[in-house]
C-alpha cells in the first residue's frame, strides 16, 4: 500500500477531485489518501458521504508571501505574457496582466513587476529569473513548514490540483527536495497562454493532445514524457446516466414549466463581462413574447446575482437558478455542494441552448449535443471593454475555422438565432462536437478519473523518474 497526497490549495479542486471518482478509485485499489488543504472541514465530510471513504487530512498552512518572491514571480509572469503575445501574434494575451487598482502596496507591486519584467530579455532571461524565484522559495518559512509537513505525511506521490495558486509552488519545491514524485493538473483550457503555471512538477496532467502541445509550446523546457493526457474529471459527471433526472422531476424541483423550451443564460464574472447585466436584459427583451420559451439564468458561481437584480425585477419571467454553492468571506469558504453537480448536468441536458459571452458552458452543453450561442456585440461605440477582445483570446483559436457555436452579432439577432437553434439544432454549430473533442480529448475513452487514478497508482509504484 502506498500513500498518495492531494494538495487542494483552494476551492477549484473540490468538484474535480473530492467529488469525482479519483480518490474513491485509489482507495479501492488499497492506497492511503491524504488531503492536504485549508478548506472548510464541511467539504471533506460532504466528499466522504458522497464517495463512502474518509481520507486522512493535513492542514495546509497559509503564509503571507515573501515580498521578494512575489516580485520575482510577477516579473517573470509579465515577461512571459510579453513573450507569449509575441510568440502567438496576439496582443490580447497582455489583458491577463493585473489592473493597477486597489491599495497602494498592490499598485506599487504591479508597477514594479511590470517595470522589471519588461526588462527581462528573451526566453533565457525568463528561465534565469524563474530559477532565482524557485531558489528564493527555499529560504522562506512557508517552504520550511511544507518540508516538515511532507516529511510527516511521507507520500510516494504529491498531486497538486491547481497550478495557479502561488503557495503551491513552495509545497512542490519542498516535495521535490524530499524525493517525492510531484504531479500537477492544468486546471482550465485557457490557463496556459496566461503565464500562470506558477509551479514546476515532475509530471503534468492535461485535458487533451491539444493542451499537451500548448504546454510544450509555451514551456519548451517541459519535456513530452512529463505530460500525460488524462482528460478532466469535471466532464466525468456528464457521462453518468444516473446524474440525469427526468424533465418533469427537474422541472418540479426548480419550479420550471416542462412544456416550454428552456434557454439558459449563464453569467460571466465581472472582469470577463462587465456589461453582463445588459446582455441578460437584451436576451430577456428578445424572448419576452415567445410563449413557448422559458429563460433560465445561472450566474457564475463565485459571484452573487446582486448586479443582475434590477434586470430580474423588470423581467420576472426570468427563472433565476443560482449555483448551489457555499458562499464565504474568504476564498477557501467558497465551494460547490454535491447537489450543484447534478444541477449543472441537468441544465446542460434539458436546456436547448446556453447563451453567454465566451463561457466554457458552451462545451458543457456540447457534451449533450446542444449548440451554444455566443453574444458578439458591444453596447456603445468605442467603449473601453469590448467583446472583440474576448473572442480574440488565445484559447478561442482552438476553434480555428470550425463552426463550433452560433453567433449573435447584434441584439436584434438574438430572437432569430434562438429560434434557429430551437427549430433546427442539427443545422447550426455543426462542428460543436469536434470542438469539444479538441478541447477535452476523446470523450469515448475511459473516464478522466480512471486515467488520473491509474497514473498516480503507477507513479506510486515507480522507484525512478522517467526523465
Automatic annotation (TrEMBL):
SUPFAM superfamilies: UDP-Glycosyltransferase/glycogen phosphorylase. This is UDP-glycosyltransferase.
Amino acid at each position: 500500500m502506498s500513500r498518495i497526497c492531494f494538495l487542494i490549495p483552494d476551492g477549484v479542486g473540490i468538484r474535480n477531485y473530492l467529488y469525482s471518482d479519483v480518490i474513491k478509485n485509489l482507495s479501492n485499489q488499497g492506497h492511503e489518501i491524504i488531503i492536504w488543504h485549508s478548506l472548510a472541514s464541511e467539504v471533506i465530510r460532504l466528499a466522504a458521504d458522497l464517495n463512502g471513504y474518509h481520507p486522512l487530512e493535513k492542514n495546509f498552512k497559509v503564509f503571507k508571501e515573501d515580498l521578494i518572491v512575489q516580485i520575482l514571480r510577477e516579473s517573470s509572469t509579465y515577461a512571459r505574457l510579453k513573450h507569449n503575445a509575441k510568440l502567438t501574434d496576439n496582443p490580447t494575451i497582455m489583458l491577463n496582466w493585473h489592473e493597477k487598482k486597489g491599495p497602494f502596496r498592490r499598485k506599487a507591486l504591479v508597477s514594479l513587476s511590470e517595470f522589471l519584467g519588461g526588462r527581462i530579455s528573451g526566453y533565457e532571461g525568463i528561465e534565469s529569473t524563474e530559477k532565482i524565484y524557485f531558489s528564493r522559495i527555499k529560504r522562506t518559512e512557508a517552504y520550511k513548514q511544507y518540508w516538515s509537513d511532507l516529511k510527516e505525511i511521507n507520500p510516494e506521490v504529491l498531486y497538486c490540483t491547481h497550478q495557479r495558486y502561488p503557495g503551491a509552488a513552495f509545497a512542490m519545491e519542498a516535495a521535490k527536495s524530499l524525493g517525492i514524485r510531484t504531479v500537477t493538473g492544468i486546471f482550465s483550457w485557457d490557463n496556459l497562454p496566461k503565464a500562470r503555471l506558477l509551479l514546476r512538477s515532475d509530471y503534468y496532467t492535461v485535458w487533451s493532445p491539444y493542451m499537451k502541445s500548448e504546454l510544450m509550446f509555451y514551456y519548451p523546457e517541459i519535456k513530452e514524457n512529463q505530460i500525460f493526457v488524462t482528460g478532466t474529471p469535471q466532464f466525468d459527471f456528464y457521462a453518468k446516466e444516473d446524474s440525469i433526472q427526468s424533465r418533469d422531476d427537474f422541472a418540479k424541483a426548480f419550479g420550471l414549466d416542462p412544456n416550454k423550451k428552456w434557454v439558459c443564460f449563464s453569467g460571466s464574472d465581472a472582469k470577463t463581462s462587465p456589461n453582463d447585466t445588459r446582455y441578460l436584459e437584451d436576451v430577456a427583451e428578445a424572448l419576452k413574447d415567445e410563449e413557448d420559451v422559458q429563460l433560465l439564468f445561472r450566474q457564475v458561481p463565485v459571484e452573487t446575482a446582486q448586479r443582475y437584480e434590477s434586470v430580474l425585477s423588470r423581467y420576472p419571467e426570468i427563472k433565476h437558478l443560482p449555483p448551489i454553492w457555499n458562499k464565504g468571506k474568504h476564498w477557501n469558504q467558497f465551494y460547490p455542494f454535491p447537489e450543484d453537480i447534478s444541477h449543472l448536468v441537468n441544465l446542460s441536458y434539458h436546456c436547448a441552448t446556453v447563451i453567454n459571452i465566451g463561457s466554457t458552458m458552451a462545451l458543457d452543453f456540447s457534451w449533450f449535443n446542444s449548440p451554444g450561442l455566443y453574444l458578439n456585440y458591444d453596447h456603445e461605440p468605442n467603449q473601453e471593454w469590448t467583446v472583440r477582445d474576448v473572442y480574440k483570446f488565445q484559447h478561442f483559436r482552438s476553434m480555428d475555422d470550425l463552426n463550433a457555436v452560433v453567433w449573435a452579432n447584434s441584439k436584434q439577432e438574438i430572437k432569430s438565432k434562438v429560434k434557429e437553434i430551437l427549430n433546427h439544432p442539427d443545422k447550426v454549430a455543426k462542428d460543436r462536437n469536434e470542438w469539444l473533442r479538441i478541447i477535452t480529448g476523446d470523450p469515448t475513452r475511459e473516464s478522466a478519473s480512471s486515467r488520473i487514478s491509474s497514473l498516480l497508482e503507477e507513479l506510486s509504484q515507480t522507484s525512478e523518474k522517467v526523465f
